[in-house]
Amino acid sequence: MPEHQTEAKPSGLKRLRDTAPLGLSLIFLLLCVLVQYSTGAWNAAFTAYPDEPSHFISSVMIRDYFASGMTSSPMSFARNYYSHYPFFAVGYWPPFYYLVTAFTFLVLGVGRAQALVVSALAAAGSATMLVILLRKRCGSIIACCAGFVFLSLPEVQHWFSTVMTDEMVAFLCLAAGVRLLIYLERPTAGNAAFCGICCACAVLTKYSAAYICVVPVAACLLLRRFDIMKKPSFLILYATFAALAGPWILATMHGIATGLPSVQSDPVTTRIVSSARIAFGIFPLPLMIFVLLGVVALIVLHTTWQADVVVIALLGLGSFSLLIASPVDPESRYFLGIAAALLALAFAGWAAALSRTDASAVVSALAVVLTIAFMATHLGAYPHTPNSSIGLIVRAVTSNPAWAGKRIVVASDVEGPMIAEFAIQDHARPGYMLLRPSKLFSDEDWFGQHYISRYDSVQRLAASFARKNPADLIIWHSRPSYVLRTHERLMDQMLSGGSLSWRKSASLPIASSDGSTWCVYEFVPGQAY
Asked: Which one of 378, 398, 413 terminates a domain?
């Protein structure tokens, strides 16, 4: 056989090995999509977290800007859009997530299910990165088990079933770690640029990924790879990051701290303890024990450490340190990347502890069985967003031709979720002029605290519609008076007190499953307040 043919087999095997993660990532993606579908995440309201509507509407706005042909300036388009759908904050948040989701909307259409495709892709990407990080040390089978276990964590499922940025941040930071390992192995300019791109995309998704900028330097120092730090390619890594992320950071630096507390609410030691509790609490108890023992084994067997362990540890410690230093109180969604790092370190520790045994086939089979059992127990076992009538109410409004393009005061308790639903169902987007009661009739800070009502009587609030805030419709969600804020109680009294200016629509009310009632009130021209 000719020599060139004998060399074809190894290259073919290498190609198969390199493309295997792509096929596996498709399986991971299918799993995420099935979880979303089976748990009703596609049709849920945007109420899982207060930031959900902002992320969704920001993405829809950018999609509509692209679809418009970009004939106006981005700022003027955004101002006009905000006057119609006043619930987005792109500019405060970096743009990468919104760009990805906007392009997804251009291809698949606008909807919650389409937005959740991005979350599923990010979660599947994180699981794939775990496989890539672990397969050399643990073998392909056990590495795949780590990916499936990660996707089966209730906390991970919860956040890939919401329109949030945290899954993408975790994925891009893990991807940056993988690209850094590739660069450390082959320090070429191309590999450096790829690593810099991943770092930039992570930071341009959310500034909580800023720690990733330090990881390449820290890894070279800990691994004593001073030779790499002297290479021009190392400068290329950071030059790529600066070229991509620098302009946005500089342009928005004045608003980065907007809404953030000026000081931490707890001492550093308290934050360390509570953050560690959250990080390990992401794992169900049996898995938590597995992770703790695996991490301890890896610490004891420190002679087995190589570049992969160092980089994974830096990913976890870097994120943890930034959360400790941040003035924002820790939340479980911030710890998805840390959970992935802990899981990878635990699997690496168990692999190191069992490396001297000759029962690798038995260990792999046991890992598969336990993974299947874990998935069967925990898939779908996360806090689901409760059913809501928001979509039904918005559909009742948008289906009425007489109400097209009207100025509408949205329900005060679900302003963001309702505006997001209008963004989906309004085919003339932006058509309706949506108004937020919390902005019209009250003042509060970024976190909804230090609330002050602007009006102290029904008469003054009602008169404001004529003087400052004319509206055609009010969508009202009747609830017990004790849960209403001052301006909501005044609105309730105005609408339920037989005001001549507002007439209840005959096409609604609609009763919710919780016993509350939704109504639409129409403004009656010429009638006195």
From this structure: 378
